Amino acid sequence: MEMKKFLIGFILVSTLASCSNTSDLETGEMRTLQLLKKAFNESNKPKQFIDARNLINRKQIDAANIPVLFVELRSGQNGTLTPYPGQGVGQTWLGADGATITTEKGILKASRGMGDDLMGSSSSMPTWPKVDYKTDTYKREFGHITGNNKILKRIFKCEILKANNGEIIEIWDIGFKVTRYEEECFSSSLKIKNTYFVDAQNIIRRSTQYHSETLGYVTIERLDR
């Protein structure tokens, strides 16, 4: 139970709070106008997010002794996720709000509850040991849900190369020695570029991966060691 509470404490919970005061002497019409004005102003304000970096530290991560992901959206919203129990295709990671992402060896495959959900993806990208400074073109496919609940599929032609070997990156106060890989993909109307930092155990320690037109790119870090 204590571990469960601890893990829940890991997860980002974003909030947007507001308050209002009205005088008892105000007419109903005035109160209505003020509420409408307030609602309009609030809708134009940027949302405030809790930064997970301020909630957890390296000592807590190590004490948990389980895999932990940090995920950050382009908006600045971020949080930590832990493995979803049970077997499935790839590894599913769960947040306290019910949002999930699924990865396969660190590559983003699907998401739920994040908006413009990635319903699934596939790729014939070679394994890390087979990636050199130049690779043959391969295919990547994305499937996103549309407004009418249909799946929109987009097919890319991709290339990946080993951009640098032996870099040191810092993740939550720990330095990891990694190799940087850069992947470029093209469709008829879109070009994307993903970056992966992979350690000696072929774990993607940090990556910037394309999610969707709505969310753009997401940054993913593997925090446990």
Word description of this protein:
With 225 residues, this protein is mostly beta strands. It has 2 domains: 2-11 and 19-43, no CATH class; 52-222, YmcC-like (YmcC-like fold), CATH 2.40.360.10. The protein is built from 3 helices and 12 strands, in the order H-H-H-E-E-E-E-E-E-E-E-E-E-E-E. Strands 5-4-3-2-1-12-11-10-9-8-7-6 form a 12-stranded antiparallel β-sheet, with no helix packed on it. Strand 4 and strand 5 (107-112) form a beta hairpin. The longest helix has 16 residues, at 28-43. Residues 1-25 have low confidence and may be disordered.
Give a brief rundown of this model.
The protein is mostly beta strands.
Task: Sum up the structure in keywords.
mainly beta; about 220 residues; 2 domains; globular; twelve-stranded antiparallel β-sheet; YmcC-like fold
Topology:
Elements: H1 2-10, H2 28-43, H3 58-64, E1 69-72, E2 78-83, E3 91-94, E4 100-104, E5 107-112, E6 118-123, E7 138-145, E8 151-171, E9 174-186, E10 191-198, E11 204-212, E12 216-222
Antiparallel strand pairs: 1-2, 1-12, 2-3, 3-4, 4-5, 6-7, 7-8, 8-9, 9-10, 10-11, 11-12
**Level of helix content?**
10-25%
Q: Give the DSSP E fraction (strand runs of 2 or more residues).
A: 35-45%
Order of helices and strands: HHHEEEEEEEEEEEE
How are strands sequenced across the largest beta sheet? Answer: 5-4-3-2-1-12-11-10-9-8-7-6
Number of domains: 2
Count of helical regions: 3
Radius of gyration, in angstroms, nearest whole number: 21 Å
The appropriate CATH architecture of the largest domain is: Beta Barrel
pLDDT averaged over residues:
81
Low-confidence stretches: 1-25
N/C terminus separation: 24 Å
Shape: globular
CATH superfamily of the largest domain: YmcC-like
Topology-level CATH name of the largest domain: YmcC-like fold
- Work out the number of β strands: 12
> Mind summarizing the main beta sheet?
12 strands, antiparallel
Query: Class by helix and strand content?
Result: mainly beta
CATH class of the largest domain: Mainly Beta
